[in-house]
Amino acid sequence: MKNIQKTIMKIIVVMVMVVVPFSCQDRLDDLRDNPNAVTSIDDAALFTKAVRSLFLGTTDQSVSRFSGHYGHYFVAGSTARIPDQYGDGFDGQYNGMFNDMYGGVIRHIEEVLEITSAEETKNEVRHSIANIIAVLGYAKITDAFGEIPFTEGGKGKTQDIILPKYDTQEVIYREMIARLTTSIDILKTADASMAYPNSDPVFNNDMDKWVRFANSVRLRLAMRLRYADSALSQQTVAQCLSEPLMEDNAHNAFMIETEGNGNAWFTMRTGFPSIKMSTMLIDQLQATTDPRLPVFVSEDANGSFSGMTNGLDDAAFGASNFAAKSDMGTRLSSPDSKLYIMTASETWLLRAEAALVYNNDPTQANTLYRKGIETSLNQWEVDASEIVSFMASPTATLSGSNDEEQIGTQMWLALIPNYFEGWSHIRRTGYPVIADRTAANLSQGVTNGVLPTRFLYSSFELSSNNDNVMEAISRQGANKIDTPVWWDKN
């Protein structure tokens, strides 16, 4: 009898063990099918993350260690100064910058593009806005490294592409311009309620501003092609001038960082690595009595403006009294200082260059040039009387003999604090002139004193995606920091 009872109990236990997992699975299936459960990632949150990453990228190490030096805006202290000596021994930094650029903006925005183009979640308005952010993200990476993964870039998660091919800059630029053109056409008549009404940290869902922004970015890219593809450049510029552009500072694309210590330049002004402004920048502002001097540069302990010479060798740097030099201006480097991606002043100056070289109209170029300077002065809230005085100075009028240099120098200033774009501008135009280093106390680095023109593909990228990277190098040229990118032909 007892054996029968034991047998029955064993059968019951086995039945319970079999039934319970199915019951649990049914419960999990119920949860998966729950109409109130979260079944997909909100593309609005991903969009906001991508936008934030884009703006924070204007203060990352690609700027604080590299392009800010290359653009002769400042000199950083400690080990952050070493790229200023035109060396290339920064494999870890090159790899980190490459990964961060893809892992921040591109990873998130590619997911947004995937979601907003999928049949069940299609939204062409959101897709168009996301493409503008994608273009800006890819533009920075390609301008930094040259050929990069573009058509297959950032798709490891969405399309399981682990070893993406590299595209030529010509292909990338043509596609970026095409994407912007499509976005502009859609957004001109877009229903704002279909965009990001509660998740747009740039323009608060203002479609007119998005159109102006996209068209101004397109103008930037078009002028960057001036020496590489003049026909496409002129054609695109004409197209841009037929559409609304950024015209006043209400159109500026900016963000204020509210997390942590706020604007990263604040930490670098008050902590590590310390930033001191370039002698070249201060000399330009002082020589022209530019009222933006106290905006861009802080007074030193003596109440003066004193800069650091870019490229000093170690001995000269040690004797430079670095700590006593002028810091970055507090308007640029306070916790709540604005981070800019593009401004109306840049747009006016691009138009001035286009009028000069494409329309052969120095009178119109001068009008646009003056508008660009005045817009920049107003952006920084320069006193009205100082604006009047500066606009009456020779600096604010094209001379007729060195007009391109004048426009180029004012663009260099107007791009502050977007220092990466300042370096790209110098590479394209040659203005302001960054002289080759010949003085005994300057480091010539691996470029023989010539301004670096790109970042290197890292050893990790070479080893992990070797075939595709080597194909890019075979087209582009040696993996060196003085190999120019495709559009850098001036």
UniProtKB/TrEMBL annotation:
InterPro entries in alphabetical order: SusD-like_2 (IPR041662), TPR-like_helical_dom_sf (IPR011990)
Keywords: Lipoprotein
Source taxon at top rank: Bacteria
Family annotation (Gene3D superfamilies): 1.25.40.390
Protein name: SusD/RagB family nutrient-binding outer membrane lipoprotein
Organism of this sequence: Hwangdonia lutea
